[in-house]
Specification:
Elements lengths: L15 H11 L7 H14 L3 E5 L2 H11 L7 E5 L4 H9 L3 E5 L13 H4 L4 E7 L8 H11 L2 E5 L7 E2 L2 E2 L6 E5 L12 E5 L5 H8 L5 H5 L19 H12 L1 H18 L1 H6 L3 E2 L13 E4 L3 H13 L27 H9 E4 L7 H11 L1
Parallel strand pairs: 2-3, 2-4, 4-5, 5-8
Antiparallel strand pairs: 1-9, 6-7, 8-9, 10-11, 11-12
Helix pairs in contact: 1-9, 2-9, 3-4, 3-7, 10-14
The chain binds pyridoxal-5'-phosphate (PLP).
Length: 373
Amino acid sequence: MEKMIPFNKPYLSGNELEYIKNAVELGQLSGNGFYTKKCHAFFEKKYGFKKALLTTSCTAALEMCAMLVNLKSSDEVIIPSFTFVSTALAFVRQGARVVFADSSIENPNINALEIESLITNKTKAIVIVHYAGIACDMDIIMEIAIKYNIIVIEDAAQSIDSYYKGKRLGTIGHLSTFSFHETKNISSGEGGLIGINDIKYINRAEIIWEKGTNRADFFRGNTSKYEWIDIGSSFLPSELNAAYLWAQLENLTLIQNKRIMIWNYYRTHLEIWALKNNISLMKIPEYATNNGHMFYLICDSISQRRELIEFLKSNETMAVSHYLSLHSSPFYTKKHDGRILRNSDFYTNRLLRLPLFYELNVEKVVDIIKIFN
Ligand SMILES: *Cc1c(COP(=O)(O)O)cnc(C)c1O
């Protein structure tokens, strides 16, 4: 029997180690150096962000967003319950009350049609998550946001190189966040990005990014003193991380093609098996693209999922489930308003992710498919 196929695995795509070495030779390992600037330029030119800033994680980028929207303690933020903890945590930490929204029936994304019913005169922002890199229905969401003057933040942690009706995910809302955590399509170990689409947030984002100081303006010569002027933190990553990330960005097309190939292989070869076992496979809405971030199954029951995980494990293959609905988490259950979020709980109980990483070669995928059939 072969060695266990992991669920995820970090990888080198090309020049990562060379660029890290080069960063040392350039004499700056603290943030905002040569490689950080290359990454910023990539995201500003290729993505069309008005401003892009690397962060130490997507969690940190979400924290920056929470600071930028200037929350008061009575303010409400609408967030899907079926998401990673950071999406909600960043806003709770700034004092907001989170109003959890349910997923849609079609996929784990927020049910855009339910959002309007959750809006009150305290609603300040909506944070949406493009789960598995599959777009939320942004036209509906942006229309509501304009109607009620609410800020939209896209948690695009899983959404690099994916689109909604031809628009890049992360460029549609006012602000967006990406993750370069080891488990995402491109990575720097830990890392993230805040993308700014509304220019009114640029100046303050630079300040918050640099510990609440006017460092950026000072170095541009726009102010004579380098001072503390606002809240913030040390949100910028080291050049070591940026160098690793830059090497991966250079190979983005290659990486994406590989992941999508694996995804398509799963999709085609599991179709009949899924049908026979009353399991449904991921579907892509016509307005969305697939970026090969994740391949998941929706099982028929929680016990079927448990058996499948065990069966795969006994065949040396790691499959994992997530997320546990945040509205019933130990931290938030007492603060939640008691609404039942049926679809969120449905995905909590039924969703199963199969291994998908850059170095998962076709032979291995064929082996995994064989286990099922
Ligand atoms: C991974 C992830 C995050 C957190 O990213 P980090 O870079 O680990 O902080 C946040 N939101 C979603 C939807 C994610 O998938």
